[in-house]
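In pairs, describe these two lines:
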Amino acid sequence: MCLRFVRKVSLSIIVSDADTGNRSLFLHKIPGSQKTESEKTEVTEETKRGSTKSHVLSRMRNFVVVGNVATTSPDFSLEDIPGTSGRLDILCRCINSAFVLSHGIRKDVRIFLVLCGGDTPKTLCLRGQDLRHLNPDERTTAALMKKALALDATERWQRSTPGIFVRQGSLKDLSILRDCTIYYLREDGPDVREQELNPDRDATFFLGDHMGVREEDETLLEELGTKVVSVGPRSLHADHCIVLINNELDRREASL
């Protein structure tokens, strides 16, 4: 494969608004990065043991998915998620594809779900570093989202369950779009395997749902200098694209 990371960089974990009380809407801190005390201890102990392998973490992988008609209300049925929630089932599959491994959860992943099916858009953030109670089935995932949407969301991030945060706001309100290199997954883009990712910044991969991407969102992405890439010549489901991106990044990291 031609696409590769040039080097690995230590991961920082940013404390969320819900923890810091930061009231900024636009350039707020998002759930994600400065090393925790346990991580610092782990690195220190590894060094003391004289390990010959450098103990470093890869860059954070971010996924942003827009649910064009996804409900912002918890009033949907877990017995009929596709028919009562504005296709939250699609976003549930994206969550599972982003995080779930055969015997664990990816710790270096965050996913932001922009829900546009209500009067006021809401955004959910799931952070692999401290995500709990996630099982590889849509119903359990939808139940976690339902609990988050039941909170009285404001312009600040609020913690729902471990690793899951919610706030009011649309795509343009995500500060992560200003802090990372953005890659827009689209069929007409150059093959991601032939591209190099910026090794000095976290990578954010943007995807639409079954309805695609709205014109105003594409305009915003263009203004931000987003790079268009593809995972192949055919149109795939968003969750399948996430699996392919994770696999591509896994292969590159393994080759270092």
In short: The longest strand covers residues 61-67. The chain is about 30% helix and 15% strand. The helical segments are 17-20, 37-48, 81-84, 88-99, 138-149, 176-179, 215-223, 238-254. The two ends are 13 Å apart (CA to CA).
